[in-house]
Amino acid sequence: MTNKRLLPVSAKDMIKVFSKIGYQIERQRGSHVVMSKGEEILIIPNHNPVSKGTERELIKDAGLTVEEFNNLLKKH
């Protein structure tokens, strides 16, 4: 059975997951953390929890599926 359900997640946890796949924190401006991996950039709102729509878009932009993201989240 696949787990495609989006789990509620904080910005801190999203940053940990994206760090595992090679993204690095570049800077923080206000309530947004900018992470990059080469030319790819993710802007993560520093909220707890991150809204579901934003979470889904960031996961997609990072090249992950919801299932892959959830597996990485459980391993931290």
TrEMBL record:
One example GO MF annotation: mRNA binding
Keywords from the named record: Endonuclease, Hydrolase, Nuclease, RNA-binding, Stress response, Toxin-antitoxin system
Keyword Repressor: no
Key word GTP-binding present: no
Entry-linked InterPro entries: HicA_mRNA_interferase (IPR012933), HicA_sf (IPR038570)
Pfam families with a match to the protein in the record: HicA_toxin
Entry protein name: YcfA family protein
Organism, scientific name: Methanoplanus limicola DSM 2279
